[in-house]
From TrEMBL:
One of its GO terms (molecular function) is 3-keto-5-aminohexanoate cleavage activity. It comes from the Bacteria. InterPro entries: Aldolase_TIM, BKACE. Its cofactor is Zn(2+). PANTHER family: 3-KETO-5-AMINOHEXANOATE CLEAVAGE ENZYME, 3-KETO-5-AMINOHEXANOATE CLEAVAGE ENZYME-RELATED. It comes from Salinihabitans flavidus. Pfam families: BKACE. This is Uncharacterized conserved protein, DUF849 family. Keywords: Metal-binding, Transferase, Zinc.
Length: 302
């Protein structure tokens, strides 16, 4: 089986500080977690920022620039900056930091969808910050917006104008057809790095049959011109990313996607999840690629 690419998503914009004392929030914490994940074998670091005082998801370029140069200086890992940000942010907000940082890679969510986080609120009894409870509870009426016009703008301003390549986040089969549409329009060039996303309430369910189906349709739409990776939320993370590795795919882990390292046990670092998945994929006979190989595989600007 081919070599395997590990992505680590360091902090995200879904989990909140009251869910885990180990969620990195400050620039120091995000830098430390990112370097630890890279050291453990993650070739790509997927990055969001937070307000260091409150832990609230932030689009502010200064919050990103407080850790990006430090990570870049200390590691050759590929930096992948989110353009998804958080569903409560405008597109201008979401693009501010990526346009400022001009990274090699950005994420791109391939559609508009419900993004329900409120079930998580029901498990929390003590809140660290006032913003957390309303943020989670109001997600029952939250829409993550990425219309074809929004996606065209992101592809143009980050891809065409700044040379970034993309982690295409596909939360459903329909998102694969949307990517095909943009490929037919020549706005994206192969090889396509497609992240199958499972377990977000509003997207496709975290079932192995859905992973098989997503791959079946991606094979049909993109032939050999794509690589797939899998991420899955919470307790679905290890089973589904392991399945991806067994199917010849790539994997994404990190505290953005799951706060756990085992049933009922919080992960203390992002690196712990990278070490765990690395052991599993190497036991499956896969060879983990480093950042240089990842750049060659994905055709990054370096
Ligand atoms: C489910 C993940 N939060 C997908 C994600 O990482 C989206 C993005 O940042 O653009
Ligand atoms: Zn993200």
């Amino acid at each position: 089986m081919s070599k395997i690419l590990i992505t680590c998503a360091i902090t995200g914009s879904i989990h909140t500080p009251s869910m885990s004392p180990y969620l990195p929030v400050t620039a120091d914490e995000i830098t430390e977690h990112a370097l630890g994940a890279a050291e453990a074998g993650a070739a790509i670091l997927h990055l969001h920022a937070r307000d260091p005082a409150t832990g609230q998801p932030s689009a502010a370029p200064e919050h990103f620039m407080a850790f990006l140069p430090r990570i870049k200086q200390a590691s050759d890992a590929v930096l992948n900056i989110s353009t998804g940000g958080s569903a409560v942010m405008t597109l201008d907000d979401r693009l501010a930091a990526p346009k400022r940082a001009e990274p090699e890679m950005c994420s791109l969510n391939m559609g508009t969808m419900n993004f329900a986080l409120y079930p998580a609120a029901e498990r929390i009894t003590e809140w660290k910050h006032d913003w957390e409870k309303p943020f989670l509870e109001n997600s029952d009426d939250l829409v993550f917006k990425n219309t074809p016009r929004d996606m065209t703008r992101i592809l143009t301003e980050m891809g065409v104008e700044r040379g970034a390549r993309f982690e295409f986040e596909c939360y459903d089969v329909s998102h694969l057809y949307m990517l095909r549409h943009f490929a037919d329009r020549g706005l994206v060039k192969p090889p396509f790095f497609i992240q199958f996303v499972f377990g977000v309430l509003g997207g496709i369910g975290p079932d192995p049959e859905n992973l098989m189906h997503m791959k079946l349709i991606a094979d049909k739409l993109f032939g050999d011109n794509y690589m797939f990776s899998v991420l899955a939320a919470g307790r679905h993370q290890t089973p589904l990313v392991t399945m991806s590795a067994a199917m010849g795919g790539h994997v994404r882990v990190g505290l953005e996607d799951s706060l756990m390292i085992a049933r009922g046990q919080l992960a203390k670092t992002n690196a712990e999840q990278v070490v765990k998945i690395r052991r599993i994929v190497e036991d499956l006979g896969r060879e983990v690629v480093d950042a240089t190989e990842a750049r060659a595989m994905l055709g990054l600007k370096g």
